[in-house]
Amino acid sequence: MKINSKHKNILLELICMLFILLFVYAAVSKFLIFDEFKIQIGQSPVLTAYTSWVAFGVPTIEILISLALVIPKFRLPALYAAFTLMIMFTTYIFIILNFSDFIPCSCGGVLEKLDWTEHLIFNIFFVVLAFIGVMILSPQKNGNISKYAYDT
Amino acid sequence: MIRKKTYTTLFICMISGIGIVSLLFSLSEHKIHRDNSFTRRFAGHPAIKAKQLDLSYNSYFIAGADQGKIYLGNSISPFHLIILDTVLQNKETIRLTLDRDSLPYKHIQLRVIPPYFFLIDGIMPYIFRGNTTDWKARSVMDNPPYFSQVEPIDSVSLLIRGVSGKTRENILGKITLSENPKVDLSHELLQKQIDGIFDTDGVLQYNHQLQKLVYTYHYRNQFIVADTALQLNHLGKTIDTISRAQIEVGTIASKNQLKMAAPPLTVNKNSTTYGNYLFVNSKLIGKHEPTNVWNNASIIDVYNLVENTYEFSFYVYDIKKDKLRSFRVLHDKFIGLIGNHIVTYQLDTNQFKHLSPHLKEDADSKVMTLKENL
Question: Do B28 and A48 touch (CB under 8 A)?
Fold first, then answer.
């Protein structure tokens, strides 16, 4: 049981680190070529009406989630947020692939080299990671609280 | 109990994530596919599908059409040419040759106007010409200007669209081949609305019957008719209401690039001209038109260039989810490329009063009926 929870903690740390790596990398590569990124967002049939909001909002949220993942207190909400964000990216790709007659791309750095299907798999993988992270963290946290509650 | 709460939260996160993106999508779809306040005319059956042939590849384009023959070039294999008759039965494959061993190319284009053909690259740039008896091309101009579109008028003159060195905007011009080749440019024909590059984009064509240049804008409801001296004849109006190009252009300073910054509102996707008519594949749906038909077909609007009027419209149907890519009209046939297929539509000469069948084909069918009667 103890080994099990130790493994779980390592896995959790790994998941958080992967997310931080992904989000910081993606956000920085977007900010580095911000004028180009903004145009790419604008070309997207789904996002064109909200270009400046999305262009600024997405990398900002990515940075914020990364910061929150570092702070233990905010880790659980950050994992929920990461989960939601990855779900949103995945939905976006799904919609672009299936319902749009025009397919642009606006991912940062090396992610641009992925084709859309690879991208979809990549995203689903991260959705699963966030899911696992939440599952590991939430009973621990809630469990502790309830344990304290029972003790008092 | 705790597990259940976690699942509920995750579920809410998932639903709201999917919800937000779907909402964004449905709102933007609404923005793009709004109703337009114009009405198309659908009367009788101006065009009925006649023949269809599988070409096995989707890289063919129509390089020319004349005297009952359709010439198909291939963008992947630029020295390969197919000649088809208008009933799509007799197929002849030609291998183009050059007066040299190899030729580098970037955007090589083939144009056939019997008894000549041109192999042209506007980016390298070079112009090769040959005749349709031996299909061997020779360079006919040293250091031609750069251009993005080209349509031959005859064996010695070609219409081009390039970029003006002075204004950095699109410009129409004419190359005259001779001992001392000449390039004429017209700064007046294309009218800038936004940036002069994207907003003036369109399709350059030459109408051999009327001997007119026809240029159909992609992003506004206008086409230009001019003579071979590049003098404006008249400006035509397509039936929709988009008189100003609705595009956004952004610059990427670090790469010194100009790019479309939003999906453009395409008005006229493609066009062709033959006889008195201009055929335009519009991207805008009119009033009272069923969207389910639009999902499975392309619309062709027919304009009369001589009377400067809109005549009527007809549909060209998709083949296996592929939409009409490019098209040409020859005699009384509409020829279209759809995915791997080439199709012909028979045009009703009662509605297309100025079109008539090809004489030879007509004679052939008479011989056929004669034989049948015997």
Answer: yes
d(CA A74, CA B20): 23
Instruction: Specify whether the backbone of B214 is left (phi greater than 0), alpha (psi in -120 to 50) or beta.
Output: beta
Residues composing chain A: 152
CA–CA dist B67, A11 (Å, integer): 74
Work out the angle between the directed axes of helices A51-70 and A2-32 (0-180°, nearest 10).
150
- CB < 8 Å to B12, chain A: none
Give the integer Cα–Cα distance in Å for B86 and B89: 8
On whether the CB atoms of residues B293 and B200 are closer than 8 A, the answer is: no
> Looking at residue B247, what is its pLDDT?
84
B301-323 in b/e burial notation, b at 16+ Cβ within 10 A? Answer: bbbbbeeeebbbbbbbeebeeeb
Q: What integer pLDDT is reported at residue A147 of this predicted model?
A: 40
Q: What's residue A3's pLDDT? A: 59
Q: What is the pLDDT of residues B139-167, one digit of tens each?
A: 998 888 899 999 999 999 999 999 988 88
Measured CB to CB, residues of chain B less than 8 Å from chain A are 2-3, 5-6, 9-10, 13-14, 16-18, 20-22, 24-25, 27-29, 31-32, 248, 250-255, 259-263
Tally C-beta pairs within 8 A across A and B.
Answer: 92
- Dihedral sign for Cα atoms in the order A107, B249, B150, B240: positive
In terms of CA atoms, which chain B residue is nearest residue A103? B263
B339 within 8 A of B320, measured Cβ to Cβ: yes
pLDDT of residue B371: 53
Chain A nearest C-alpha distance from B181 (Å) = 42
With a cut of 50, list the residues of chain B below it in pLDDT.
none
Residue A108: which domain range? 2-151
Q: List, in order of start, the domains of chain B with CATH numbers.
A: 53-373 (2.120.10.30)
Q: Count of domains in chain A?
A: 1
ipTM rounded to 2 decimals: 0.81
Q: Which of B315, B264, B263 is nearest to B285 (CA)?
A: B315
